Amino acid sequence: xxxxxxISSYIPKExxxxxxxxxxxxESASFVETKLGARFLPRLEQGDDTSDIAxxxxxxxxxxxxxxxEDIDALIVVTQNPDGQGxxxxxxxxxxxxxxxxxxxxxxxxxxxxxxxxxxxxLQGFLxxxxxxxxxxxxxxxYSKVITTPNRTTSMLFGDAATATWMxxxxxxxxxxxxxxxxxxGAEHLKVEQGELYMNGRQVFNFASLNVAPAIKTLLExxxxxxxxxxxxxxHQGSLAIVDAIARRFKGSEAKFxxxxxxxxxxxxxxxxxxxxxxxSNDNSARLVLSxxxxxxxxATCLLKRNEEYVN
Amino acid sequence: xxxxADVKQAMTDSGVTTDVSNLGxxxxxxxxxxxxxxxxxxxxxxxxxxxVTVPDEDLDKLTSINDVLVYFNKS
Lengths: 312, 75
Fold this sequence. Notes:
Chain A: Residues 220-305 form the Beta-ketoacyl-[acyl-carrier-protein] synthase III C-terminal domain. The complex is a heterodimer. Chain A is α/β, with parallel strands linked by helices.
């Protein structure tokens, strides 16, 4: 059985005071606290690129878990903002900087906020199909690289961070089922043009608030998981307002929707694993729902259940 | 036919936390403390209830309850 064994992360210490930044856009502290949800937005350290924060996350994983470099069989990096122009692929650069063995399969997955859930499924399937044992799923998508001029729609939302998830045998959490969706008509609403991020905030908000809840409910029904049986709903932390808008569609279960972007902001594909790491080892939650959604438009939902046979 | 009460109810249903009971029909949403995300939520709610879609280019024209009523009731 392959599943999630450990998660580690890297969050830069330096960053932006979002209250001060909001003043420059004539937005109130209340707007920052109750709608955006991010008081602080971490930013890449001077000289760091995407592969560097990916390496720092994997280094943390190697330090905090029993995983050894020579045991890694596969490395996936989820990013749409790789070093340079993405050629070579970021996973190869991470492989080099970590001095991983040459037997490692390493490749990138080009997805944004749905990328972690996609990545879990891709890595699980890859390991199973290839007979390999240990894979590392990295998320590293520092949007500060494409928000270089002040922009009221994007500057106050996004933070930089990276995570590394170890998938292998004897896991703590197992992917029970997943579902995916794409609406390419939404591609024009969130994109990079001439090196700068463009976002139609209203269209992205509408997409998420209308599509995510039905996707979750359908997957729950398919698996006979009543909403009340779920211990926590861990959604992509697009903003506090979008998590609230989705949670409102789950009457009676709103309190189970985790909100944790105060010190990170929207970290794209890293937002879900940054929360999920708190549900390993010292937690007894039996059923978790993950859902990522964003650029594309793309969305992905999965059900996680605790492996009762897990041996620490 | 959308009414002022319907719009205020839609605000509450869409998670607007400001007490809108004293919001005047001519009063600008922004003056009353409603922000852009409150309005995103409101229009998702109203579009769902009425089947009327508000294109992005029309959004800036809808700054009060009266504007909303005129827009939705003629559509």
